[in-house]
Design goal:
Layout: H1 3-27, H2 41-51, H3 72-85
């Protein structure tokens, strides 16, 4: 078997795979464009009222992180930046 037949066989296999992929892509259903319905004003007002701060003048700062691959400085810097910003 010569190298020429191996190369031709590989190229024909690649062409078959690409053709099958193209057929599969065109057989997928088209996405439907849906129109979003407007949100009622009462629901918008209720959501904004629930997001308003309750009783505290100064916000609570909480820094959440994963302990692995972090240093103490990672937590202290972000806390310091947030504390300085809230003044």
């Amino acid at each position: 078997m010569s190298v020429r037949y191996v190369i031709l066989g590989g190229l024909s296999l690649l062409a078959l795979l690409l053709g099958g992929f193209g057929v599969w892509i065109f057989s997928l259903p088209m996405p439907l464009a849906a129109e979003a319905q407007p949100v009622p004003q009462a629901e918008t007002d209720a959501m904004l009222a629930s997001l308003r701060p309750r009783g505290r003048e100064r916000p609570v700062i909480a820094v959440v992180g994963i302990n692995g691959a972090t240093e103490t400085n990672d937590y202290l810097m972000s806390t310091g930046i947030l504390r300085r910003r809230r003044r």
